[in-house]
Specification:
- The chain is of the alpha/beta class.
- Strand 8 and strand 9 (177-182) form a beta hairpin.
- The protein has 2 domains: 35-102, Roll (Ubiquitin-like (UB roll)); 105-235, Rossmann fold, CATH 3.40.50.11690.
- It is elongated.
- The chain has helices spanning 5-29, 50-56, 70-78, 147-159, 161-166, 197-213, and strands spanning 35-41, 83-90, 95-102, 105-110, 115-119, 124-126, 137-139, 167-173, 177-182, 188-192, 220-224, 232-235.
- The protein is built from 6 helices and 12 strands.
- The strands form 2 sheets. A 9-stranded mixed β-sheet has the order 6-5-4-7-8-9-10-11-12. A 3-stranded mixed β-sheet has the order 1-3-2, covered by helices on one side.
Length: 236
């Protein structure tokens, strides 16, 4: 009886490789976490520090890797007011890696008893001691305010060069209606209810360009955009 030694050696090599891999995995999973590495994006401006994130999950230091739930750590980190989403993972070694995406503020809300940011996903975030964001200020906010409409208007201001340059404040009227205040003067822009927003913005730009060339923008107390294809004005 002749043995096919090449096949036997191949099978033995495969069994040995699986054994080594299994043993390595057991050793790796039993390792103790001794360091937490935190990465925050975007890295141009931090509303939260890496140290504060590490401090919030320091209890996992000196814990074996196989006893850690990455999902539970992510849930814990995501409760932070500045965190939009976190991802926690472990590589080979003794380090716990945390990737954090910060919330992006688009407006600052001021009420009678609090100040906080509104972010691009209609969520709120606390004012940070590390950084202040230059965004429009919202007045008149309460629990009945239309947050979706506020977010839409705030995003328009953030992403439109003209609005970003010229709008400084947002006023909520009757919970559902919005006014804007122009930067540098007291001119009020009436947007009204959440309808035809893009058309209203186009009408505002067209009107502004006409009066700006005549240096007359400061003559107007109010610019009313609520009516379709019309711009009504009230002079000071």
């Amino acid at each position: 009886m002749r043995f096919n030694w090449s096949k036997i050696l191949l099978v033995l090599s495969l069994i040995f490789s699986i054994g080594v891999l299994y043993a390595s995995n057991l050793i790796n999973n039993s390792r103790i976490i001794n360091k937490i590495h935190v990465k925050i994006t975007p890295n141009s401006s931090y509303f939260i520090s890496a140290d504060s994130i590490r401090n919030s999950i320091n209890k996992y230091i000196l814990t074996s890797k196989d006893s850690i739930s990455l999902y539970e750590i992510e849930q814990e980190i995501d409760k932070n007011t500045y965190v939009e989403k976190s991802q926690v993972y472990m590589n080979i070694g003794q380090e716990l890696n945390v990737d954090i995406k910060q919330k992006e503020p688009i407006a600052r809300v001021i009420t009678a008893d609090s100040i906080f940011y509104l972010d691009k996903n209609s969520n709120f975030m606390s004012i940070s001691k590390l950084k202040s964001s230059i965004v429009p200020v919202i007045f008149g906010f309460n629990e009945h305010s239309n947050i979706k409409y506020l977010t839409e208007v705030s995003l328009k201001i953030k992403n439109d060069e003209f609005l970003n340059k010229n709008i400084s404040q947002i006023f909520i009227k009757d919970e559902q209606k919005i006014d804007l205040k122009m930067r540098g003067n007291n001119t009020i822009i009436e947007l009204g209810y959440n309808n035809r927003l893009q058309n209203k913005i186009q009408n505002l730009k067209a009107f502004y360009n006409r009066v700006f060339t005549k240096n007359e923008i400061d003559k107007y107390k109010k610019i009313d955009l609520r009516f379709e294809n019309q711009v009504l004005v009230l002079k000071k």
